[in-house]
Structures are given as C-alpha cells and as structure tokens.
Amino acid sequence: MTNDYKLTIAWLYPDLMSTYGDRGNIICLQKRCQWRGIDVKIKPITLETQNSQLSGCNLIFMGGAQDRQQKLAANDFLNNKAPVVKQMIENYIPALFVCAAYQQIGHFYRPFQGQDIIGASIFDLSTIHPGDQAKRLIGNVAARLIYPDVLSGTVIVGFENHGGRTSLGNKLKPLAKIIGGFGNNGQDGFEGAFYKNAIGSYFHGPLLPKNPQIADWLIKSALEVKYAKNITLAFLDDSLAQLARQKILDRLKIIYER
Amino acid sequence: MSFLDNVAILIGKVSILVSRFFKLGYGGTWPGEIALTISPDILKHFSSKLKMGMVLVAGTNGKTTTSLMLKSILETAGFRVIHNISGANLLNGLVSAFINSASLFGHISGYDIAVFEIDENTLPLVVNKITPLIVICLNLFRDQLDRYGEVDVIADKWHNALTALPSSSTVILNSDDPQIAYLAKNLKAKVIFFGVNDPSSYRQKLEHATDSIFCLACFHRLHFSGIYFSHLGIWKCDHCGLERPKPDYHNWQSPLPGFYNRYNFLAAVAAASQLTIRTEIIKKTLKNFSPAFGRQEQFKYQGKQISIFLSKNPAGFNESLKTVISLKAATMLIVLNDNIPDGRDVSWIWDVDFENLPKQMNIILSGTRVFDLALRLHYSGRQFITEENLENAINKSCQYLQYNQTLFCLPTYSAMLEIRKIITGKKIL
C-alpha cells in the first residue's frame, strides 16, 4: 500500500465557485486517494484564507460560478491568490480549472456589454461573449484527449453550459479534440487547454468522476512532483464510470472506438 | 370581450373535450396554447372577470404544495377558486385552467379568485400583463441551470416585475431566504413576510448546496445566527447591517412532514390571512389536507405502500432525504431522468448530500441516467442496486418491503410522472 503518501488539495472558493456539481471533482479526487491509502486533505481556500495556506498544496481545483459570485471571487483571486497559483503551476503543480475558473485564468473575458473583465493570465487564452443573440453552448459533450501525452486518444465526456467563446494563444495547447458538442468556441473543434501539469476545461458534469483517467493522472502527477519519483497508482474498478460515459456517447451517437 | 376571445375560448373548450374523450391527456396546457395563439391577451380578459383577482405562487421549491394549501383553505371558506393542475405553470397552463372553468361563452362569473403556481420565468411575463392581487415568493435555489439560468438572473427579473405592482397588490416574501427578502426593496405593493422562528431546528453549519450566502446590498459574507437548510435561516450582514426582516407569520405547525413544508404552509397562511380568512377555517382545512400530486403523495400498489417525494434539485433533494430518514425509511428508490422537464444536465446530483444516508438502507436506482446516479452513490460509499427499467425497479424495491413498511420514491419530474403511470395507470390526474 501507499500509506506513506500525503496529498493536500486546494479547493478554490468552494462557497463561491461551485455551481454545477463541481464538488464532484473534489469528492472524486478525495475518494480515489483514500481507496488507495493515500492520506488526503481537502483545504478550502476562500476569500478569508491566507496565501500561506494555499502555497503548500499539491493539487489545485477551481470550479464554475454564477456571475455575482464570480465577481466576488475574481476580485480576491486577481489581487491575492492568482500570483501564488501562477507560481505553483509554473512549478508543475497539477491543477484543474473548470468553466468560469477556466475563463478566469485567461487574459480577459469580454462581455457583450460593458468593459473587459481582466483575468489572471495564467493561461494564454481569452474569452469573448459574442452578444445576447448568440446562443449559449449547452449540452452533452465528448472529446478525445490530445494531452497529457499518456492519455492521448482517451475519450472524455461531460456537460457544457457557457456563453463565452474561448480562443487559445500560441503558447497554449488544446486539451482535446471535440467529437460531439461545442468545446472552447464551437468553431475550431477543440476543447480545453493544457499547460505544464494544469488543465482547463468547459466540461462540468462534473469532469473527474466520469473520466477517472484524468483524476488519476492529476493524483499521480501531484505525487510525482511532491516525492520526485515515478509513482504507479493501484488499480480501481471504474466500470460504473464506463457505463455512465457510454450513456453520453449513445446520446451523442458516437461509436466508442477505444 | 372581443370576438377573438370568444373564438379562442370556444376552441379551447372543444380541445379539452377532445383531449379527454380520446384520452390524450387532461388538457392542462394545449387548450391554453391554442387560445393564446388566437388571442394573445386572453389572460387579461379572464383576470378582469374574477371577483377578487389572482394569486401567483412562485419559487424553486414548494409552489405546488403552497398553492394547493391556499386553494383548499379558500374553498373551505366558501370561495370558488380557479387553480392550475400541477406542472402546467406556464402561461398556457394558466389560460387552460381558466378555459376549463369557463362557460362555452367564456363566462367565469361564478369564480371569486384564481390561485396559480407559476414558473420562475413566467412570473415576470404574467405580472407585466395583469395586476395580481397577491404574489407569493417562496425561495430561490439552483435548479436546472441549463433551462432556468442563474438564480441571480431570475431574482432580478422578479424584482423588475414586482416594482411595477401598485399599492393595492400584496407581495408575500420569505424572510429567511436572503435573496427573496431583498425583493422587498423599493416596492410600492404591500409587503408581508413569513419565516420560521425555531432555534431548536438550527443546524450546526451551512450545507454545501447554498446559493445566497453573500449580502445582496454590499456583497460581504452574511452571518447566520441560525440555519434551517440550504441558505435559509436567521441571516445578517455584519458589514452593512442588512438583516432578515422579522416575519409577520411564523408560529404555525405544518400539517405535513418535512421542514420545507413549514415554509409552504406559512406562506399559504399569510395569503389566506390577507384575504381575511379566519384562523378556525385554516385549522379545519388542515385536518383533512392531503398532499399535492407527487409531493409526499401516497399510493397502494400491489398491496404495498408507496410514497412519492418529487426531488429535482440539490436543496429539494437534501430536504427529501432528511424527511425520509426522519420517517425511518428502510427502502428507497431514486430515479434520475434527463428529459426536458428534468433538465438535461444531471451534474447537480454531486451537490446532494447522499453521504448522510444510513448505511443499512436498501437503495434501488433507476432512470435514464441511472449510472450517473450509481457513480454518485458509489463515491458516497453506499451500497445499492441498479435497474434501468422503471417498472422492474419498482417491483424489485417492493420485494424489500417488510410488513407495514413503505417504499419511498425520490424521482425527478418526468420520472415522477412515469412512476404514477405505472402505479395508477395515469400520469397526471
């Protein structure tokens, strides 16, 4: 067993940025660690939390939000936590940013009215809302992973619900190729972004329980960065996740090839 | 009444008869839909003919039960009441209810008042067309975000609509829901608050599924000196001083189990009192009150007792779980569908606290998204069985029942209709 391993997961703004079942990602990471005997702690990081609590964490998660809550969180994130998060990501700390968090780590979000909302520029991307006549990109979605390399080709599923269209800059790689649904902008066929050990995605649904390969990759990467050695995680039975994924692929009329 | 109104009502009436004759359904929505196509302002015509006016009941959870309670109280008091059947809470449902009660010539002169539950997005549309006598706002929780959008957006729309109401209208608000209480700001209409004063029911801490825990005025974190469930409680902003208004109605015992029904009942009492109904009439009604369609509704099925608790969003689901646990449930069937009325997005199940279920409970899972549910329960460390076919799932669940036990079913909306269809042979009424 791997009882000696310890992980601390930073959950950014659980009371503000946790709208679409985002807690599922945290539950998934926590349980998959516990089932393998990894001593895991979830550290809620919110408005009142000091940066010193954040910087020692081994994995970062931040989820989606409603507009009003996002503004509250964004203000604190930009002024306080983002520089720390950026440094951690540059140091290969694995991270997952979903939906509103994904938009917020880019350069800016341009609403269809009003001024640009400045982002944390942790990822080289920007998001534009094309106007109130443009439809929201809502529905079940599936994509084939491009990165991380070890998961390349794996099909992931989820649900997306966003008005903003995200474009990646030159320094950033897309996470996956869309095979059903919209993804980043509904135009270029890509979904999400990948940088060092950090992932950004529009998939809530939430992402990790139905796509446990990504959960395990995040855990493994976190341990490898912390303990500076190769780690092999114990096998877990994911047949239920597979059945749930198959339902989405059926809905999208996608024939699963792997 | 215009000629078009007449035509609309006549065709609507005929379509109800056709619908029932051919067993196409109860005619809860499409007679209204047809009538609205012919005469878009027909609601205005109908509402102007009511002796007293219209009561609208809005909120994420509880509008069916609250409107049924109020309707029952008013009928006991001798009023003739027009009421929409459950689920038909869009414009076409309201118009259908009027057509159903109207004579062939469109007269509804025998009716005193209409009590309608109303969809979150329909409330502003109706308030812009007609001036209701009373509007009740129960609560706002995240619910089917792919369909309704964010609670803040709904609250803004409601507030815009309510500010247009004159002083002759009454707005009845839940003082324990910060976002609902804040709707009172700048209203010309009379405002009445209901809320619960019961320190013995305080929870230790906020649940995960909360939506309004920051001040609506200054955006600082609210302080809760008492929490009932989700974000409902005794709240105050320590920064700007905004606080929970003192409720005008707070000390009534609900006739149904479940904490949420205390709010539903208080809201109905507040409205009835505005309509000068005497306390004895309210108490008399409650003695015989039976639950609304799909809301703690009881059935006998093949000799077994079945109780249905519609559960369609995190706050409501958490309350259903607490209620069935308090009723000592031994066997529970959870059915998760992702049809249009349920919402396509089932992510919200991860905001439900399944971790609070007793470990020894028999749990059976079904529905179009049964494996998403199974995955959620798996991560909560609970044992369960899955059965995709709903009829088989009900039968299997019944096999677990020992003498005198009840099967508790927690379905999403379309699943609730399917269960009723299997048990009673009819989806609606």
UniProtKB/TrEMBL annotation, chain A:
Cross-referenced InterPro entries: Class_I_gatase-like, CobQ_GATase1, GATase_3, Lipid_II_synth_GatD
Domain annotation CobB/CobQ-like glutamine amidotransferase: ranges: 8-211
Catalytic residues, chain numbering: C99 (nucleophile), H204
GO BP, sorted A to Z: cell wall organization; cobalamin biosynthetic process; peptidoglycan biosynthetic process; regulation of cell shape
Keyword Ligase: yes
Residues that bind substrate: R136
GO molecular function, one term: carbon-nitrogen ligase activity on lipid II
Superkingdom, natural source: Bacteria
Pathway connected to this protein: Cell wall biogenesis; peptidoglycan biosynthesis
The enzyme's E.C. designation: 6.3.5.13, 3.5.1.2
Keywords: Cell shape, Cell wall biogenesis/degradation, Glutamine amidotransferase, Hydrolase, Ligase, Peptidoglycan synthesis
Keyword DNA damage listed: no
Record-linked Pfam families: GATase_3
Reaction catalyzed: L-glutamine + H2O = L-glutamate + NH4(+); beta-D-GlcNAc-(1->4)-Mur2Ac(oyl-L-Ala-gamma-D-Glu-L-Lys-D-Ala-D-Ala)-di-trans,octa-cis-undecaprenyl diphosphate + L-glutamine + ATP + H2O = beta-D-GlcNAc-(1->4)-Mur2Ac(oyl-L-Ala-D-isoglutaminyl-L-Lys-D-Ala-D-Ala)-di-trans,octa-cis-undecaprenyl diphosphate + L-glutamate + ADP + phosphate + H(+)
Family note: Belongs to the CobB/CobQ family. GatD subfamily.
Purpose: The lipid II isoglutaminyl synthase complex catalyzes the formation of alpha-D-isoglutamine in the cell wall lipid II stem peptide. The GatD subunit catalyzes the hydrolysis of glutamine to glutamate and ammonia. The resulting ammonia molecule is channeled to the active site of MurT.
UniProt subunit comment: Forms a heterodimer with MurT.
PANTHER family (alphabetical): DETHIOBIOTIN SYNTHETASE, LIPID II ISOGLUTAMINYL SYNTHASE (GLUTAMINE-HYDROLYZING) SUBUNIT GATD
Protein name: Lipid II isoglutaminyl synthase (glutamine-hydrolyzing) subunit GatD
The organism of origin for this protein: Candidatus Gottesmanbacteria bacterium RIFCSPHIGHO2_02_FULL_39_14
Gene label: gatD
UniProtKB/TrEMBL annotation, chain B:
InterPro entries in alphabetical order: Folylpolyglutamate_synth_CS (IPR018109), Lipid_II_synth_MurT (IPR043703), Mur-like_cat_sf (IPR036565), Mur_ligase_cen (IPR013221), MurT_C (IPR013564)
Keywords: ATP-binding, Cell shape, Cell wall biogenesis/degradation, Ligase, Metal-binding, Nucleotide-binding, Peptidoglycan synthesis, Zinc
Residues in coiled coil: none
Pfam families per UniProt: Mur_ligase_M (PF08245), MurT_C (PF08353)
EC supergroup of this enzyme: ligase
Positions of Zn(2+) binding: C215, C218, C237, C240
GO BP term (any one): peptidoglycan biosynthetic process
Catalysed transformations (reactions): beta-D-GlcNAc-(1->4)-Mur2Ac(oyl-L-Ala-gamma-D-O-P-Glu-L-Lys-D-Ala-D-Ala)-di-trans,octa-cis-undecaprenyl diphosphate + NH4(+) = beta-D-GlcNAc-(1->4)-Mur2Ac(oyl-L-Ala-D-isoglutaminyl-L-Lys-D-Ala-D-Ala)-di-trans,octa-cis-undecaprenyl diphosphate + phosphate + H(+); beta-D-GlcNAc-(1->4)-Mur2Ac(oyl-L-Ala-gamma-D-Glu-L-Lys-D-Ala-D-Ala)-di-trans,octa-cis-undecaprenyl diphosphate + ATP = beta-D-GlcNAc-(1->4)-Mur2Ac(oyl-L-Ala-gamma-D-O-P-Glu-L-Lys-D-Ala-D-Ala)-di-trans,octa-cis-undecaprenyl diphosphate + ADP; beta-D-GlcNAc-(1->4)-Mur2Ac(oyl-L-Ala-gamma-D-Glu-L-Lys-D-Ala-D-Ala)-di-trans,octa-cis-undecaprenyl diphosphate + L-glutamine + ATP + H2O = beta-D-GlcNAc-(1->4)-Mur2Ac(oyl-L-Ala-D-isoglutaminyl-L-Lys-D-Ala-D-Ala)-di-trans,octa-cis-undecaprenyl diphosphate + L-glutamate + ADP + phosphate + H(+)
Start and end residues of each Mur ligase central domain: 57-272
Record SUPFAM superfamilies: MurD-like peptide ligases, catalytic domain (SSF53623)
Domain Lipid II isoglutaminyl synthase (glutamine-hydrolyzing) subunit MurT C-terminal: 310-416
Active-site residues (renumbered): D345
Record-level Gene Ontology MF annotations: ATP binding; carbon-nitrogen ligase activity on lipid II; tetrahydrofolylpolyglutamate synthase activity; zinc ion binding
Pathway, per record: Cell wall biogenesis; peptidoglycan biosynthesis
EC nos: 6.3.5.13
Record-annotated membrane-spanning stretches: none
Subunit description: Forms a heterodimer with GatD.
The protein's role, per its UniProt record: The lipid II isoglutaminyl synthase complex catalyzes the formation of alpha-D-isoglutamine in the cell wall lipid II stem peptide. The MurT subunit catalyzes the ATP-dependent amidation of D-glutamate residue of lipid II, converting it to an isoglutamine residue.
PANTHER family to which the protein is assigned, alphabetical: LIPID II ISOGLUTAMINYL SYNTHASE (GLUTAMINE-HYDROLYZING) SUBUNIT MURT, MUR LIGASE FAMILY MEMBER
Similarity remark: Belongs to the MurCDEF family. MurT subfamily.
Entry protein name: Lipid II isoglutaminyl synthase (glutamine-hydrolyzing) subunit MurT
Organism: Candidatus Gottesmanbacteria bacterium RIFCSPHIGHO2_02_FULL_39_14
Name of the encoding gene: murT
